[in-house]
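Issue 218. Parser rejects a valid record. Input:
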Amino acid sequence: MSQRDGFASGFLTGTIVGGIVGGIIGAVVSSRLDNDDEDNRSSLFQSDKREKLTSEESIEMARHRLEDKIAQLNHAIDDVRQQLTPVEKQSLEQETSSD
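Output the parser choked on:
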């Protein structure tokens, strides 16, 4: 009986301490990532004259990046489809020959 009581109290203590430590680590990592993101954003949107891009220009850049990613995904889907076509034909032939 005493082991069960010890387990429950140890589990509860471990949960509380782990939550506190995890929260502290999460807050520290999050603040560092936020600072890095701000630094990256400011360096990306600065020109030689330190002028920020207009919102239309940044939207256009984002649109081009998305179009490039969509094209990459479509290419990958086509490659997988071509790889699977012989496998599908082979499995259909095996099914028909076994019937």
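Fixed in the parser; the record now loads. The chain has a mean pLDDT of 77.
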